[in-house]
Write a structure and sequence with these properties.
about 120 residues; mainly alpha; about 70% helix; about 0% strand
Length: about 120
């Protein structure tokens, strides 16, 4: 039961993020991360259960120097692999990407190195 509540909470938080995007669009301002919204939503649905979204969001806000990753990086983060998923590893790489300037190739190597 706790797992279901946790998953619903994560889904609700993901929908809240998309709601923020849509309200800013309707109010006339276009967020920089709008092209990334579909990939971000996919990432939230697949890999943000059991409190990972809140922890990563808190980390990014505490650093204050995060930047727009772009739709290509978010697409890599939301890509499924054939083997067992390492959600903690994905969030660790995401935190690195939010903090440091790393390339798409670096992110791909870091994410897929663990599952091979």
């Amino acid at each position: 039961m706790e797992l279901i509540i946790s998953l619903l909470t994560s889904l609700d938080n993901g929908l809240l993020m998309l709601h923020r995007f849509s309200t800013s669009i309707t109010q006339g301002s276009r967020p920089q991360c709008l092209p990334s919204a579909p990939a971000i939503f996919t990432f939230v649905l697949k890999y943000c259960g059991t409190g990972f979204l809140e922890e990563t969001d808190q980390f990014a806000r505490s650093r204050g120097n995060s930047h727009n990753l772009g739709p290509d990086l978010w697409a890599v983060f939301s890509t499924e692999t054939k083997k067992r998923e390492f959600t903690v590893w994905r969030h660790m790489v995401l935190k690195m990407a939010l903090t440091f300037q790393i390339t798409l190739t670096d992110v791909s190597r870091l994410i897929f190195a663990v599952v091979l």
